[in-house]
Amino acid sequence: QSALTQPASVSGSPGQSITISCTGSSSDVGYYTYVSWYQQHPDKAPKLILYEVSNRPSGVSNRFSGSKSGDTASLTISGLQAEDEADYYCNSYTSSRTWVFGGGTKLTVL
Amino acid sequence: EMQLVESGGGVVQPGGSLRLSCAASASGLNFDDYSMHWVRQAPGKGLEWVSLITWDGGRAYYADSVKGRFTISRDNSKNSLYLQMHSLRADDSALYYCAKETGSGSHIDYWGQGTLVTVSS
């Protein structure tokens, strides 16, 4: 049950696009489409922003998009805004019928 | 929408026990339709999945880090979720979130605000 691998930090300027990767294995990200992404602002509970790799819940901006290739899922945020500055976590179902999160990525909007 | 309110956190000595509770209230949703999770976050650290229980309480799954020490349970008549924690260690110190899984079972969609557990002598 090793955590999925995410970059510790990414940064971008307002209006730019950034991509956060989430690398797992053939037992989790590589096998299932049950990959989700969460945004967490300081001292707040996580908020769902993508589910099943690329689906957005109602109310989430279409600036957030997701994809998956092999054992790696990716979150792309386009048209960066100051309010996007937060921690981002990926999550995947696993073949052990458990769930695993990524280590988290801190997004800084310059 | 479902509101989740955790309680039961506090300071406990290493080796001690604690029971967390999560009260669910929902408009248009039935608590007993959904699997429920516990997820924790140590101070300044990332999210760690802890445990899952199916809608009927029939199956439970645990992270290796808590297996054999933690027990998840639910009482659907009370719209409540629980986490019994034994043999607590310093690295169990965290904010513990109660979270609801979607009906499709593909992801967590609602989170509580968490209850803080501190294991310290």
Any chance you could write out the topology, listing elements then pairs?
The complex is a heterodimer of chains A (110) and B (121).
Chain A lengths: L8 E4 L5 E6 L11 E6 L6 E4 L13 E6 L2 E6 L8 E8 L5 E3 L3 E5 L1
Parallel strand pairs in A: 1-9
Antiparallel strand pairs in A: 2-6, 3-4, 3-7, 5-6, 7-8, 7-9
Chain B lengths: L1 E6 L2 E3 L5 E9 L9 E6 L5 E7 L6 E3 L7 E6 L4 E6 L8 E8 L6 E4 L3 E5 L2
Parallel strand pairs in B: 2-11
Antiparallel strand pairs in B: 1-3, 3-8, 4-5, 4-9, 5-6, 7-8, 9-10, 9-11
Notes on the structure:
The complex is a heterodimer of chains A (110) and B (121). Chain A has 110 residues and is mainly beta. Chain A has strands at 9-12, 18-23, 35-40, 47-50, 64-69, 72-77, 86-93, 99-101, 105-109. The model of chain A has no long low-confidence stretch (mean pLDDT 96). Chain B is mostly beta strands and 121 residues long. Helices cover 0% and strands 52% of the residues of chain B. Chain B is built from no helices and eleven strands. In chain B, strands 2, 4, 5, 6, 9, 10 and 11 form a seven-stranded mixed β-sheet that branches. In chain B, a hairpin with a 4-residue loop joins β7 and β8 (80-85). The relative contact order of chain B is 0.31. Chain A binds chain B through residues 1, 3, 33-34, 36, 38, 40, 45-48, 51-52, 57, 87, 89, 91, 93, 96-104, and chain B through 37, 39, 46-49, 52, 61-65, 97, 102, 105-109, 111-114.
**Uncertain residue segments of chain B:** none
**Portion in strands of chain B:** over 45%
- The residue ranges of chain A in which pLDDT falls below 50 over 5 or more consecutive positions are none
Cα-to-Cα separation, first versus last residue of chain B: 40 Å
Question: What structural keywords apply?
Answer:
heterodimer; A: 110 residues; mainly beta; globular; B: 121 residues; seven-stranded mixed β-sheet; 11 strands
Quick structural summary:
Chain A is mostly beta strands. Chain A has no helices and nine strands. Chain A has strands at residues 9-12, 18-23, 35-40, 47-50, 64-69, 72-77, 86-93, 99-101, 105-109.
